């Protein structure tokens, strides 16, 4: 049973498992540790996914995160790719899980289709500054700021509970952080659809070509405190605890206003060099600061009325 609490000493997380339809991606972000070249990675089959999900049914897993590399919008394989994602979500629902999909920018109709088999969806804005198109996003056409901001607008129009976030330390300025957060705030005040904003520090991995230091974790609490001032109170700030390896500064980030630790699964597919801390280890760290760790759903309670009956699973209560 999963539920939410208004207790101010609560920090939440989602018991999750990540399924990757494909690692192939037509973008080549220089900080990426996830992608492979198009045609170099076989797609996950439904039979393989079903085998994975069957093993998870006896475990404490609620959320299935569908996380994929991007097939080019004009590729003849695009429709098959989207259908595979849809079918994986439908399979997860059939087997008693709640899907959350993050697969890059989609068309309005693609988002509308996936809304039917997802309790929530997501897309990182990262940063809205166009300057990064000359550096880390030089070979990443779908990282055009206007394209990604459009996704948040469409999610609001479609009433899709949505997660977005910032990637910190990829060549942006402090003003870029505040402008990106202000854009998220403006759209949320119009549509009331943003569940969480992730504040993700750049953490160098073994596969990337981007030569930069990790984002200073000692700066993160200050950034979170400012983000808390900019964002509406009903948006939760999320931090990835595996990327903040000093427990003192993890607690400082929570004290500054972060209240969610995201999906905790066996592997961080985006940052494979940084293993997830598991539930008991996180619980012990948080207890040192007087915080209680509790599980949550991948959809927040205020969005229950946006979901179809198919998506409201009987074994899980939203309260």
Overview of this protein structure:
- The protein has 319 residues and is of the alpha/beta class.
- It contains eight helices and nine strands.
- The protein has helices at residues 46-56, 78-94, 108-115, 145-157, 174-191, 220-230, 247-256, 279-288, and strands at 10-19, 63-67, 98-102, 120-122, 162-168, 194-201, 236-238, 258-264, 292-295.
- Strands 1-2-3-4-5-6-7-8 form an eight-stranded parallel barrel, surrounded by five helices.
- Strand 5 (162-168), helix 5 (174-191) and strand 6 form a beta-alpha-beta unit.
- Helix 4 (145-157) packs parallel to helix 5 (174-191).
- The protein is globular, with a radius of gyration of 18 Å.
- Residues 1-6 and 314-319 have low confidence and may be disordered.
The strand order across the widest sheet is 1-2-3-4-5-6-7-8
Helices and strands: which structural class? alpha/beta
Q: What fraction strand?
A: 15-25%
Give the rounded overall mean pLDDT.
Answer: 94
Order of helices and strands: EHEHEHEHEHEHEHEHE
**Major sheet characteristics:** 8 strands, parallel, barrel
Stretches with pLDDT under 50, minimum 5 residues: 1-6, 314-319
Q: Tell me the total number of β-strands.
A: 9
Proportion of helical residues: 25-40%
Count of runs of 4 or more consecutive helical residues: 8
Rg calc? 18 Å
* Cα end-to-end separation: 11 Å
Task: Summarize it.
The chain has 319 residues and is an alpha/beta fold. The chain contains 8 helices and 9 strands.
Structural key phrases:
single chain; 319 residues; alpha/beta; globular
């Amino acid at each position: 049973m999963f539920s939410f609490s208004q207790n101010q000493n609560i920090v939440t997380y989602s018991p999750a498992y990540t399924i990757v339809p494909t690692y192939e991606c037509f973008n080549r972000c220089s900080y990426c540790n996830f992608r492979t070249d198009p045609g170099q990675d076989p797609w996950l089959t439904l039979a393989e996914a079903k085998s994975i999900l069957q093993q998870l049914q006896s475990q404490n897993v609620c959320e299935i995160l569908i996380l994929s590399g991007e097939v080019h919008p004009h590729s003849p394989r695009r429709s098959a790719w989207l259908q595979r994602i849809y079918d994986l979500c439908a399979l997860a629902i059939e087997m008693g899980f709640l899907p959350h999909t993050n697969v890059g920018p989609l068309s309005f109709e693609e988002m509308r289709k996936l809304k039917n088999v997802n309790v929530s969806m997501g897309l990182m804005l990262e940063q809205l500054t166009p300057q990064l198109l000359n550096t880390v996003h030089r070979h990443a056409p779908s990282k055009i700021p206007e394209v990604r901001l459009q996704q948040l607008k469409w999610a609001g129009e479609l009433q899709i509970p949505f997660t977005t976030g910032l990637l910190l330390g990829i060549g942006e300025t402090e003003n870029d952080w505040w402008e990106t957060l202000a854009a998220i705030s403006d759209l949320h005040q119009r549509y009331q659809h943003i569940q969480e904003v992730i504040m993700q520090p750049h953490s160098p991995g073994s596969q990337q070509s981007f030569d930069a230091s990790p984002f200073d974790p000692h700066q993160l609490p200050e950034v979170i405190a400012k983000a808390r001032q900019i964002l509406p109170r009903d948006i939760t700030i999320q931090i990835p605890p595996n990327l903040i390896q000093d427990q003192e500064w993890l607690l400082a980030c929570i004290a500054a206003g972060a209240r969610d630790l995201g999906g905790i699964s066996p592997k961080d597919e985006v940052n494979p060099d940084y293993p997830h801390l598991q539930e008991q280890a996180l619980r012990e760290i948080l207890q040192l600061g007087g915080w209680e760790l509790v599980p949550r759903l991948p959809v927040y309670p205020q969005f229950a009325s946006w979901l179809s009956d198919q998506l409201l699973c009987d074994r899980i209560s939203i309260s």
